[in-house]
Amino acid sequence: PIKLSSLDDLVGINDGIGLGVKYIEYIVDVVGQTSRLSNPNPEQGKTFETSTWTFTQEPEGKHNIKYFAEDIIGNKEEEKLKEIIIDNTAPTTTIVYGEPKYVVADSSATTIITKETGIKLSAIDNPEGSGIAEIEYIVGVVGQTSRLSSIEFKLTNFADGNYAIKYKSKDNVLNQEPEKTAKIVIDNTVPVVEILSPVVVDLGLQNATALCNYVSGKVEIIIKVQDIHLKSYKLDVIANPELVSGEAISIAAGTNNVTEGITEWNTNNLPEGLYTLRLTAEDVVGNANVDTVT
Question: Measured between alpha carbons, how far is 200 from 203 in angstroms, rounded to an integer?
Fold first, then answer.
């Protein structure tokens, strides 16, 4: 609301002992209609205040109010000019996730993150608006309010699971956007990976690590890979560098969970010696795990 007030002077500026204010006149922008608000009871030394009004028809943006007062004997105040900005539009807040992250490709609009994923909320007001007063967010029962136009945080102390980030912002004249909700899944758990067969046995050799049974020919390998957000797994074999040089040899790979997956490793063309079976798996946000049998 807007209100104008005037106090009449008699001898000097701001002495406040004039005979009384007769009316206040104002106009909004040059093309507006002049409004004259008369004082029903002018009195010496008494301030005349207009009733309040609001801008309901004017568009958003900058406007000028020109105004002056006249006392009961015709003395007119020099016209004054006040610039105002009308802002009726709430800010807009966006959410951006750092890495690692994975956006689920369905209608849920869910983003999978870890405790290391940065989350940034940014609020933007309209170009001639009053500016951002605050951003507010809450995750579960944990929330925060920032006086800045952006805020960054991580959910480092949250357990794995499904959560909703509720957030909103308001500007300096209290225009507030409707609350928004972003669905997230926190996943800090590595995949379960296990080579079930060949099994590891201890041959009892001094200063030797646990070894699997001797194998030859076509070897059946049984593996287990489990993760709710599995990206991929890979089973390969690494030869003792003294026997074979080069990279690991791939035996199997996939993108689905495996309970007791069976694959075959043909050792017929390999020289005798130590080999390591290595099963690795990674989920969609980079949590990884490995199991080996030598």
Answer: 9
CB–CB of 113/119 below 8 Å?
yes
**Half-sphere exposure (CA, 13 Å, Cβ side) for 122?**
6
How far, in Å, CA of 134 to CA of 171, rounded? 7
Cβ proximity of 48 and 39 under 8 Å: yes
**Which residues, including other chains, have CB under 8 Å from residue 206's CB and lie 6 or more apart?**
none
| Residue 124 DSSP code | E
**Cα–Cα distance, 126 to 178 (Å, whole number):** 16
* 235-273 core/surface letters (b: 16 or more CB in 10 A; e: else): bbbbbeeeeeeeeeeebbebeebbeebeeebeeeeeeee
Burial class for 95, CB neighbours closer than 10 Å (0-12, 13-18, 19+): middle
Q: pLDDT: is 248 or 186 the higher one?
A: 186
**The pLDDT of residue 15:** 81
pLDDT mean across residues, the chain = 89
pLDDT at 69: 95
More confident residue, 248 or 212: 248
DSSP string, 264-290: EEE-TTSPSS-EEEEEEEEETTS-EEE
- The string over 139-160, giving b where at least 16 C-beta atoms fall within 10 Å of a residue's C-beta and e elsewhere, is beeeeeebeebbbeeebeebee
Mean pLDDT, residues 106-130: 93
pTM of the model: 0.80
Q: Which residue has the tokens 């944990």?
A: 142
Place of tokens 């007063």: 133
What residue has token string 């689920």?
104
Query: How distant, in Å, are the alpha carbons of 101, 189, 196 from that of 288?
Result: 14, 9, 19
User: Which of residues 271 and 283 earns the better pLDDT score?
Assistant: 283
Element (H, E) at 225: strand 218-226
| Cα-to-chain-centroid distance, residue 254 | 33
